[in-house]
Amino acid sequence: xxxxxxxxxxxxxxxxxxxxxxxxxxxxxxxxxxxxxxxxxxxxxxxxxxxxxxxxxxxxxxxxxxxxxxxxxxxxxxxxxxxxxxxxxxxxxxxxxxxxxxxxxxxxxxxxxxxxxxxxxxxxxxxxxxxxxxxxxxxxxxxxxxxxxxxxxxxxxxxxxxxxxxxxxxxxxxxxxxxxxxxxxxxxxxxxxxxxxxxxxxxxxxxxxxxxxxxxxxxxxxxxxxxxxxxxxxxxxxxxxxxxxxxxxxxxxxxxxxxxxxxxxxxxxxxxxxxxxxxxxxxxxxxxxxxxxxxxxxxxxxxxxxxxxxxxxxxxxxxxxxxxxxxxxxxxxxxxxxxxxxxxxxxxxxxxxxxxxxxxxxxxxxxxxxxxxxxxxxxxxxxxxxxxxxxxxxxxxxxxxxxxxxxxxxxxxxxxxxxxxxxxxxxxxxxxxxxxxxxxxxxxxxxxxxxxxxxxxxxxxxxxxxxxxxxxxxxxxxxxxxxxxxxxxxxxxxxxxxxxxxxxxxxxxxxxxxxxxxxxxxxxxxxxxxxxxxxxxxxxxxxxxxxxxxxxxxxxxxxxxxxxxxxxxxxxxxxxxxxxxxxxxxxxxxxxxxxxxxxxxxxxxxxxxxxxxxxxxxxxxxxxxxxxxxxxxxxxxxxxxxxxxxxxxxxxxxxxxxxxxxxxxxxxxxxxxxxxxxxxxxxxxxxxxxxxxxxxxxxxxxxxxxxxxxxxxxxxxxxxxxxxxxxxxxxxxxxxxxxxxxxxxxxxxxxxxxxxxxxxxxxxxxxxxxx
Amino acid sequence: xxxxxxxxxxxxxxxxxxxxxxxxxxxxxxxxxxxxxxxxxxxxxxxxxxxxxxxxxxxxxxxxxxxxxxxxxxxxxxxxxxxxxxxxxxxxxxxxxxxxxxxxxxxxxxxxxxxxxxxxxxxxxxxxxxxxxxxxxxxxxxxxxxxxxxxxxxxxxxxxxxxxxxxxxxxxxxxxxxxxxxxxxxxxxxxxxxxxxxxxxxxxxxxxxxxxxxxxxxxxxxxxxxxxxxxxxxxxxxxxxxxxxxxxxxxxxxxxxxxxxxxxxxxxxxxxxxxxxxxxxxxxxxxxxxxxxxxxxxxxxxxxxxxxxxxxxxxxxxxxxxxxxxxxxxxxxxxxxxxxxxxxxxxxxxxxxxxxxxxxxxxxxxxxxxxxxxxxxxxxxxxxxxxxxxxxxxxxxxxxxxxxxxxxxxxxxxxxxxxxxxxxxxxxxxxxxxxxxxxxxxxxxxxxxxxxxxxxxxxxxxxxxxxxxxxxxxxxxxxxxxxxxxxxxxxxxxxxxxxxxxxxxxxxxxxxxxxxxxxxxxxxxxxxxxxxxxxxxxxxxxxxxxxxxxxxxxxxxxxxxxxxxxxxxxxxxxxxxxxxxxxxxxxxxxxxxxxxxxxxxxxxxxxxxxxxxxxxxxxxxxxxxxxxxxxxxxxxxxxxxxxxxxxxxxxxxxxxxxxxxxxxxxxxxxxxxxxxxxxxxxxxxxxxxxxxxxxxxxxxxxxxxxxxxxxxxxxxxxxxxxxxxxxxxxxxxxxxxxxxxxxxxxxxxxxxxxxxxxxxxxxxxxxxxxxxxxxxxxxxxxxxxxxxxxxxxxxxxxxxxxxxxxxxxxxxxxxx
Lengths: 771, 816
Known about the structure:
- The complex is a heterodimer of chains A (about 775) and B (about 800).
- With about 775 residues, chain A is an alpha+beta fold.
- Chain A contains 23 helices and 14 strands.
- Among the domains of chain A are: about 325 residues, no CATH class; about 190 residues, Trefoil (Acidic Fibroblast Growth Factor, subunit A) (Trefoil), CATH 2.80.10.50.
- In chain A, about 40% of the residues lie in helices and about 10% in strands.
- With about 800 residues, chain B is an alpha+beta fold.
- Helices cover about 40% and strands about 10% of the residues of chain B.
- Chain B is elongated, with a radius of gyration of 33 Å.
- Chain B: This is Dolichyl-phosphate-mannose--protein mannosyltransferase.
- Chain B: Its EC number is 2.4.1.109.
């Protein structure tokens, strides 16, 4: 094998061009020696490496970040894009009304908190994009300041990550400025949106993990534990801020597993007890603690939201009854036989309705009907929605025996036409596969069997009573085993465009569920109000874990269900190349708009960097396969371990979107963009010079001292980075009218800023020559 | 150093297993594990096992008979390495012991035996083939038994029988699957004398002149072949004789495979070619030390042929192809790291793979399509899926009679020239969103709603049927009027229903009413026959490629592959694209039918079509149609199932009507096999994890050679399973239980391998225990099969009279 000791000068690459002449006499295998002394480095490197310079750079970056993110933060004073949702949710926290959303609560609670701090009372509901904040007296600047602050803090953290990983100051500044001058981060970060908070937590997670890894020779020291628990905490915060924060957990999990696998290696000479100790420490810091925190945030969420609100209807009746002022809690009561009730479909909210008109004998497609009385779904209260429950068994005169229970077979009498609900094996008007619902005169017993329905309550035990509001049920036809069902399709004119009701052969479908909206009258016709004392009921209590489990399950289901198309949704392949953005907000009077789009120079640099990295690694693998080792081991380790860590973050936060079928937006790429900025920095470092700061891990009591090397990107580093940052800044300023939504642009200016033809900007000028 | 010339004493060769010419590689041929081959020689103990250490196992190349010792240095080092493994007796089992397991990592090359002189000698020589022959006969019985019992069109026979008929009638049809399977159905029909005139209505009784039994028998033959294939694959994978039996028995007695093989369906062929692919791959793997020998080439090429066939039956064959691909990549990566191999050899290896595994299958796939087009040369029901030029060449098509040059007043249909484009269509239904005007869509079937008339602009004189003929040329501004509803093709600045960034296209106005937004500029792109735009003076039907620009807003009429929701009958959305992208073929249109009494008919010779274009067009059409088969969220399909239901056999599938007076078939696996194989997958993954952890702590559980073999078979089985299964989780289309059937094969191989590893070849268990385990497993499979045989052979009488078939509450086998 021609390895390290090979006399052939495989490493033809030389370091920085600025290297002073006396370096060239150093013999070929002394690459390391060149940089073992920190004094031999170029002047720029030495200056920048000092603490003072470091602080100055961080200071400049942070001040710039705050300046760019807080610039005109009060503009527009209107609801922008998803502020519709997240602002509204913040209001609900303040008014303590229960709401339902697919995202975990932490970030939204922080918005609630921010709103509360600045004295917002939660009266505004953020109903439409473009609603004015000033007219409605919403202290929105305070709420926007929170993400702007966190988004600004992300910039020095990025710098810190790179610095801690042992890159030159100028390289760290390069990575930070990729985030600092990014229009997408800025635009996203200064509005009431979750992503800035998520990205802040993700970057903190990375930072803590890097610090933790650097202490690996001082295991179980208090500092070590501190950074480990810090990693777990911020990971939990990311996870609890937005659904895709779960990817951060995966992204940390992979390096942790690799790490543990290495500790397990017998060549390291560790005992199993030692390994177990490590394993347990990580289990506590990265599993137990985050899970606890995640649950804790939900606990706070559920503790705050104790009042009834718009989210009630998503939840199960048992959950709803824990909310103060909930309709179910107030009005739910047991249903007795001979009560008249109105029945409502859970999903489409229509009432079961019938009227004297009949089905036409022949439909447009030539099929024939029974010509029975129409049964339809109708959206409004009406006396034709009233049905009386007729028993099929003997009843006691009074008492609990008259309550309708699970699995009872009942008939439903339509009160105003005195006919029984019936279904039979005739195709329904719109769906040939489903059975038609109609009614049959009360005194004609010839079709008695077809009027029998079995009541099947959802999640009920045997003998459970049927309650209004809370007792969700399916109505199963006894002879033909179909479930009463309806769907949003309207019947034609002959049924007044009401909704079709038919018998669904698949009785397990979730959309078969109905509930009793109201008990209209008792048998005697008396009002039922006096049957039970209504109102003033105390909310029931329910185990937190049950409530959490129900909520979590619903969140997952609804998240997968977000498949509706959106004009600005885009597919993941477009994201790194910045092929399309999102129109956040437009203002017709001033031709102003906010268009979420990244800094073209920065994003394409990141793409180039990632491809370069993959190319370097691939070439290295292939070369090693052929017994050639072109890259020095210390550099190679850095490429694999530190850049690899960044690449894992990029990949884990990016590729899962390919298999998701929900609607996707470019802002889902922002966490990946942050990771790609880190990759870009380390690739730049590799390209400029193959030197790294080594070792960077803090020495432990048992580690052998190793010869140190020092990174040196020479003079050309600051120059290249300087020019690049300037270019980024110019680009940022050029598209800043789209980022800040001001000033307004005329048509030609818009066209000029449409750097890629796939960007869909508003107010573009028409092509002047109309052939 | 070792002496350069090594003489290895390999002991007395066993009977009927004469020593080969090579001086190592004496790996037992697995088949000699059949009980009759009781004589096990001392030879095994003296095998130079250390040659098989990890480092060198796959790098060795064929050596000459004399053994010139060139490649023997590694043996020195590896022997030393092996010493390291010996850590104070931690590895109780690692010491060289009698290897009871045959290992398939190299194949014994036996010289052909002398020609048999007596019958008994012949039998002696072929003793190893007796079990597979017995299994094949049993397989014939299970597959053919009562095969004509249900004289009805069962399940998807309605499709595939019908498609077979189209070949016999030579009419063009369209389907989402490639043609090979259906051509074989047609061949079965042809051989059994079927004339192709039955329309295979679902559930209908077969008339007397349809030889459905013969057709089913011929297709079931593919199902019969699965069993010996499974046997020989297990042999080639180096499994012990018990595992071979087990694999064959599981394939023989699974009611799912049995049931699906007994009808006129594609699945038996898909399964057959899946099985052959794995078999050829295993065969090829065993030739790895004899690169470029005849056998090596043969099995490499056969693997390629198998791949070509399996993907030509159904596209899911791509998944088993992926297994071959991964195997090849790993193999080449290994070879790439072999520094002793010359560049020429490397290139030959790469070339051989590219030729046999990429070019050959691709050529086969295209060849089947070529045959498909050659057979189907008559006009049929689905012509409109294809390009206009293709249709013009079908017998019975009248496009060639169309007048050539388009003129104002002509009645035309417009065909989108994008891949799988349809005809410009409109119908009385209106958009429920946007303008609420009449819908304009793209539609793949021919009806009168596709007809449009070219009329002059509103500001021109109305069309005079007796006036001079005005031919259409590039740049003309015209209106298109829908013949059936009199509406004008119209666009306005309202977002289109699906592609919201484009504007809506609708039908508006009538003979009298209309406005400037009805004007379209005809822009010629080029002409397929006459060449670039400069040669196009008048617009011709079929060959001239046009774009239609909306004069008022400058957008282009476009029909991509966006599907309208149910209110648009899932037809393709037509919109007006504001981006002028001259190379977007979805904005290209051509005139398809052209009716104008005042013009002379055209000439067929103008219309030539190219095979590659048609091939590609058809494949894109298949792809788009396949992707459109997504589950309707409004309605749960009672037949469909989710992939995660399959390994646990959560659902069965009723394949026909469930009346008491007909035979009922229920697609269901033999539960023991399905559940057992799924369990074995978990065991295999868990075992791998534990072994890796132990390896990391340097516990040596087995010799490198055993490890290599276990990993190799495990990779084929488990990765094969994952490649067949995981894509179904991701893909959006509706999935059914029978999609798991090819996947099941890999699960079955896994279970055989797991049992082989933990029971049949382990040294910890006695022969008696192995017999007991083997008998229990085989017995439970046989018993369960017998219990459930009815679901494949057909259940007569009322289903509820058959007790005890519902093993899981979700099976809808009983009438409730």
